Amino acid sequence: MNQATAAIIVIGNEILSGKVVDMNSSYLAKELRTLGVALERILVIPDDVDVIAAAVSDYSSRFRWVFTSGGVGPTHDDVTIAGVALALGVRVVRHPLLEEQIQKFSGGKVDEAGLKLAEVPEGAELIYDEGLSFPVLLARNVYILPGIPELFRAKFQALRARFASSPFHLRVVYLRAAETALVPFLNATLRAFPALLLGSYPKWNDPEYHVKVTLESKDAAYVERAFAHLLAQIPPELVVRTE
Amino acid sequence: MNQATAAIIVIGNEILSGKVVDMNSSYLAKELRTLGVALERILVIPDDVDVIAAAVSDYSSRFRWVFTSGGVGPTHDDVTIAGVALALGVRVVRHPLLEEQIQKFSGGKVDEAGLKLAEVPEGAELIYDEGLSFPVLLARNVYILPGIPELFRAKFQALRARFASSPFHLRVVYLRAAETALVPFLNATLRAFPALLLGSYPKWNDPEYHVKVTLESKDAAYVERAFAHLLAQIPPELVVRTE
């Protein structure tokens, strides 16, 4: 798996029950795109060990990097560590370095609940960074991140450089036309540039434009040629602007 | 499958590539909860017929209702209909009523792209509603909804009454305490009320509270007893307020 692909697994009943809006996956989607990583799945699942294990097992074998969000606190509904361990076929163990850190942090008065924070899937790597008070857990190709958005972002920022890949190059055309009228132009460009990532997105009730067309590839010259090909076909009066 | 369970499949490269933030799944999660429906999965996947088919096939057999969002326009990247048809083992056909409506709408000047909007998985039901200019497609237990948030919401509102189930009853306790300190109380309540849906959500940097605890069940009396049980254990000075 040399390709830079990724999946996000968001773990939390609070998202599925509509109590909390997941902010982490849209944040990470943007970050990964900037880095040149192709995000292939976002999956939101309940706090259930077996469901987590099935998802992690599936995605960790199919995609290069998997990121989990949530379910890593001290309470009964924090079962991500157990789910990842089950997926990878390893035990849950208390990591001596984490235990030491937690003991130190709480002046030696740590109870069982506090020690749950020292649990990891056996063999997990601890990634330390000067910007982090607590390390990130990496189990095989699964980065285990907390659900709290501020912590999720801080941890991802500490990891960010690991995922730098060749970037996607993007061109955008904003149009004032019905999407159906654009189909022949889009299809012609796609026939000439079959490897192009071409998207067409109608906007509802926007005074400026009706459709946003995106052209992307990791090959900058290819995008530029496809962009010119598309613009050469479309009547100029339909084009609002380009980026 | 008598239980009121559901899954949402969001189809769109634009979400995975971070260009657009999905608003439909968080909207639908809230709506379904209000209706008493247990949302079990939210999955975001690319515009890929085989990936769509695999997800629809899996979820439509495991959950009572499946909602798809996106991929139903006239362009090359709109492949949801083909994916759902493949999942259900049926052909894609042009629906005569939709074709007639589209012909009428465009004064008889419909091209191939326009007619793509008349395509359905064979055997799909058209659901008409006075609030909708275009019907909703229902293929077996899969409701096929558009990605544009305004249309997605209008269509779901037209369907809403179909999903009314017995409601969830919710109690909330806001606390000023470290989450680890609450673990013994939460676990004791869960031992006494094993069927309780109990959630614990730390908030970062909130001046009012540190942890929000939610108690839920479809049995209102059960929730009230669990709520009283939990409050009886927690030192009152830790409780900021309850709902």
Element layout with pairings:
The structure is a homodimer of 243-residue chains.
Chain A: E1 5-11, H1 13-16, H2 24-35, E2 38-45, H3 49-62, E3 65-69, H4 80-88, E4 92-94, H5 96-105, H6 112-115, E5 119-121, E6 125-127, E7 136-139, E8 142-145, H7 149-159, E9 169-175, H8 179-192, E10 197-202, E11 211-217, H9 220-233, E12 239-242
Parallel strand pairs in A: 1-2, 1-3, 3-8
Antiparallel strand pairs in A: 4-5, 6-7, 7-8, 9-11, 9-12, 10-11
Name a few traits of the molecule.
homodimer; 243 residues; alpha/beta; Molybdenum Cofactor Biosythetic Enzyme, Chain A; Alpha-Beta Plaits; 2 domains; four-stranded antiparallel β-sheet
Structure report:
2 copies of one chain form a homodimer. With 243 residues, chain A is α/β, with parallel strands linked by helices. Chain A folds into 2 domains: 5-163, Molybdenum Cofactor Biosythetic Enzyme, Chain A (3-Layer(aba) Sandwich); 169-242, Alpha-Beta Plaits, CATH 3.30.70. Chain A contains 9 helices and 12 strands. Chain A has helices at 13-16, 24-35, 49-62, 80-88, 96-105, 112-115, 149-159, 179-192, 220-233, and strands spanning 5-11, 38-45, 65-69, 92-94, 119-121, 125-127, 136-139, 142-145, 169-175, 197-202, 211-217, 239-242. In chain A, the strands form 3 sheets. A 6-stranded mixed beta sheet of chain A has the order 2-1-3-8-7-6, with helices on both faces. Chain A has a 4-stranded antiparallel beta sheet with strand order 10-11-9-12. In chain A, strand 6 (125-127) and strand 7 (136-139) form a beta hairpin. In chain A, helix 3 (49-62) crosses helix 4. The longest helix of chain A has 14 residues, at 49-62. Chains A and B meet through helix 1, helix 2, strand 2, helix 6 and helix 7 of A and helix 1, helix 2, strand 2, helix 6 and helix 7 of B. Strand 2 of chain A pairs antiparallel with strand 2 of chain B.
